[in-house]
Structure formats: structure tokens, C-alpha cells
Design goal:
Helix content: 40-55%
Number of helices: 4
Oligomer: single chain
Distance between the termini: 22 Å
Number of strands: 0
Largest sheet: none
Amino acid sequence: MTSCGYTPAEIDEMTLHDVFGLFAYWRNSPPVNEILKCVYRIEQKPEQPITNSKTDPSGIGGLIARFPNGFVRLGENG
């Protein structure tokens, strides 16, 4: 589900007319999460890809790189 409440399938089914209508609506009433990101200057960090390689076929190296201290947190401050 996207931050605006649409599933990926619903987005795929949107016509260009639907998209333009949505943009016109957002011009006057932007999504709250986008406003807060701008106000608090929050940037979402891209996730580090977990890749499989010949030297690390299980991908455990990618997981260790993502969580170097061994703790999995729900959020940045979590």
C-alpha cells in the first residue's frame, strides 16, 4: 500500500486522467506525510540491497551490513 492509500494494483489501473485529477487534488491538499517530511526535513534512506554472490550465497553478509550491531529496529529512533 502506498502512503496515499492505493495498492500497487490500483495504481497500475489508473488512467492518465485519474493521475492528473489526483495531482490537481494534491496541489490544494497534499498528503500529510509529505508535508511533515518537508517541515521536519526527514529523508528516507534507501535500503541497502541484500545481494547474493558467489562468495556469500546465503546473503548473510548483506544482512550483517544492514544491521551491524545485530539489532533490528522498527524506525530510525526505535
